[in-house]
Amino acid sequence: MDVPYTITGKVGDIVHCHCVTCRKAHAAAFSSVAAVADADFVVSGRESLTAYESSPGKQRYFCSRCGCQIYAKRDNTKHLVLRLGSLDDHPGVDEKCHIWVSEKAEWYDINSTLPVYPQSE
């Protein structure tokens, strides 16, 4: 990945999102994410950062060289949604839950004791 970034503050709880958009964007059963305050996220490789609007008011940012999704950002929020697959290290927080399980892939069974929510929590 050619978009180095630094997190200078707290990473929110890990949430596994099963919505159709996340599944398609990541070509996976779900996307593992955590919130990070805008002020605590510093990107140092912006020349390789590309974005697209995946739904109204939501931009997904990714590396234009390798395609790795790095984060998503909704308009008028003070945090971003970090795509944990882009991390090199453990984020130092625990998993919290599975969300949007009403849209989960039929071929995937959640084998976890974490809480599950039909939509966002």
Describe the fold and architecture:
- With 121 residues, the protein is mainly beta.
- It has one helix and nine strands, in the order ββαβββββββ.
- The strands form two sheets. The protein has a seven-stranded mixed beta sheet. A two-stranded antiparallel ribbon has the order 1-4.
- The longest helix is centred in the N-terminal third of the chain and has 7 residues, at 20-26.
- The model has no long low-confidence stretch (mean pLDDT 91).
Q: Main β-sheet: number of strands, strand sense, barrel status?
A: 7 strands, mixed
Query: What proportion of the residues form beta strands (DSSP E)?
Result: 35-45%
Order of helices and strands: EEHEEEEEEE
Tell me, briefly, the overall form: globular
Low-confidence stretches: none
Radius of gyration: 14 Å
- Give the helix/strand class: mainly beta
Helix coverage percent: under 10%
Question: Got a strand count?
Answer: 9
- The span between the termini is 31 Å
The main sheet orders its strands as: 5-6-7-8-3-2-9
Mean pLDDT: 91
Helices, by number, come to 1
